[in-house]
Amino acid sequence: MRSTSNPAFRNLPTGGAGYGSYGPNVGFNQPQGMPGYGMPSGYGGPQAPSAERPMTVDDVVIKTGASLATALITGVLAATWAMSQAHARALGPVLGLMVGGMLVGLVLSLIMIFRRKPSGPMTLLYSAAEGVFLGAITGLFEFIYPGIALQAIVGTAGVFITMLVVYKTGAVKVTPKLTKWIIGATAGAAILMLFNLIMSLFGVNTGLRDGHPLAIIFSLLVIGIAAFNFLLDFDMTDQMIRQGMPARWAWFAAFGLMTTLVWLYLEILRLLSYLQND
């Protein structure tokens, strides 16, 4: 498999029970009605035994949809509660909920990344925790800038759909050179954000997160990098399907896509807050 900047997809096992004996599966760029796409037995070829059924696009779509729905439900609940607390000028509990959701999500993500084993319950728990985290932040932003939550959701969905279309149509090919460029850009952005965080602890303003023109440019750059990370996520998922990895690994693909979605949503929310101040 090619490298990726998403830690969720690093060092995945290669191959699977569905590859070789049953033929390669079909990825995002392949037509429907082929072996491995979830068609009935006999339509496109024999299927693997149920215990080792190869992963399909449908598996990824369903698992990712379940993860998104979980995050959306917990996010709406957290955002509603956070706004009520903000109206009551009780920000302490909201910050506590925000930090709690962030820490739980971080711990769960680290466990999944280092265990390298797909888990539906852990993926859904991670999605729920991130939903709480994002919901609490969104509630505060919505209280300060009414309407920003819907804008952030629509913007995130728009970027995701656009990059999926770009990948499916082959408008941008995921080549080794492009992969290295995206990984390098992601690492560079992460280093700059860490540098800014450290400097802020010492009271130094680097200008990267203060809402001024430099911060807007940096935020746009990060959104662009996050968007291109979707291409790597789609490509890695495509490879997992082609290599016939067991269906349970669709949960890991959903987890990887969720991590990029969380990052993108946070950055879009931040950019919109900057623009509201102008």
UniProtKB/TrEMBL annotation:
Database matches in InterPro entries: BaxI_1-like (IPR010539)
PANTHER family documented for this protein: CONSERVED TRANSMEMBRANE PROTEIN-RELATED
Source lineage: Bacteria, Bacillati, Actinomycetota, Actinomycetes, Pseudonocardiales
Keyword field: Membrane, Transmembrane, Transmembrane helix
Transmembrane feature ranges: 60-84, 90-111, 123-141, 147-166, 178-202, 214-234, 246-266
UniProt-recorded name of the protein: YccA/Bax inhibitor family protein
